[in-house]
Specification:
By secondary structure, the chain is of the alpha/beta class. Helices cover about 40% and strands about 20% of the residues. Among the domains are: about 5-50 and about 210-235, no CATH class; about 75-190, no CATH class.
């Protein structure tokens, strides 16, 4: 514990708290959020794919006064009954093919059954954000082919604007009291070519999206953050140990050293004396001859000197 005492300093303590909080968010908030979206999207895609190949069934088989099961969403149903007149509601802030739009909701009285909201399709605004003139729903008994949809959560309160009741979500518990009806939880989305249908709202793409990879990335970040902190702690600890060892070495007194022994003089080698040998007979004759020649040259030099007066 003494080795890691520096972690209790404010800077390192704050960093450790941030890393722990980030790892907690990765494991318990961010990764579950993305993985949960991947699970719900995959489940939605499975329901859509099953409904494409399934035959429609009478609405009375899957819908009662309390609504329908969540696993029946996107299921194709046939509903007989009639629209409730003068009860259209516009859903604001919708986007269709990257364009702002309104969706039109009209209550539908099922024959011998409950009232259910019907999404008749979309209309595009005119003159900025003003809704266009909306074709009224047909009157009298009709038969609809539609898909079951789970209701959206309510948020902001309905408003009256441009002569229409407008809402922000398809929430039966909010729309019903506003128009004076008691619909079931959930609504119907019309297929193409149905009575009262407007712009067709297409099925969403059955693509799981990037949610799985995002969730795995957050898990990886949650693992890497503590590992990174541990790496920097170890590096800091090693540097502190090295600096402490260097400080101890610098503070230690110098160690006395023994005086070096004097170097012994190196004796110079003696010059080798030449060996004495007796001259040979030939060498004696040569030396005698050289001596006689030297005497003759000296006598000649004397005579020449007397002749030219050098000795006068």
């Amino acid at each position: 514990m003494r080795r890691l005492r520096f972690l209790l300093r404010p800077g390192w303590l704050a960093l450790a708290v941030v890393v722990v909080a980030f790892a907690f968010m990765c494991f318990y908030v961010l990764a579950p959020w993305q993985l949960g979206k991947n699970t719900s999207t995959s489940h939605r895609n499975d329901l859509i794919e099953q409904s494409v190949n399934a035959d429609p069934v009478p609405i009375s088989q899957v819908v009662d006064a309390d609504g329908f099961a969540p696993d029946d969403e996107w299921r194709r149903v046939v509903a007989e009954g009639s629209y409730v007149p003068d009860s259209d509601v516009l859903v604001r802030l919708r986007v269709i093919r990257d364009q702002p739009a309104y969706e039109v909701i009209t209550p539908f009285q099922v024959q011998d059954g409950p009232v259910v909201l019907v999404n008749r399709g979309y209309v595009l605004p005119v003159q900025g954000t003003a809704p266009p003139e909306i074709d009224p729903a047909p009157t009298g008994p009709i038969t609809l082919d539609a898909r079951l949809r789970v209701s959206e959560g309510s948020s902001r309160q309905p408003i009256e604007e441009a002569g229409h009741l407008q809402v922000y979500n398809i929430a039966p518990q909010q729309i019903g009291p506003a128009v004076g009806i008691d619909p079931i939880d959930g609504y119907l989305q019309l297929d193409d070519g149905q009575p009262g249908g407007l712009g067709l709202i297409e099925l969403p793409q059955t693509d799981a999206g990037p949610y799985l990879s995002y969730g795995l990335q957050w898990l990886a970040f949650g693992i890497m953050a503590p590992l990174g902190l541990a790496y920097f702690v170890r590096a800091e600890w090693r540097e502190r140990r090295k600096a402490k060892a260097q400080d101890i070495a610098d503070a230690a007194p110098p160690t006395p050293t023994e005086p070096a022994a004097p170097e012994e003089p190196v004796a110079e080698p003696r010059a080798q004396e030449p060996e004495f040998t007796l001259p040979t007979r030939k060498e004696r004759r040569t030396a005698k001859k050289s001596k006689e020649q030297s005497a003759v040259r000296s006598a000649n030099d004397v005579r020449l000197a007397d002749r030219y007066g050098k000795n006068r």
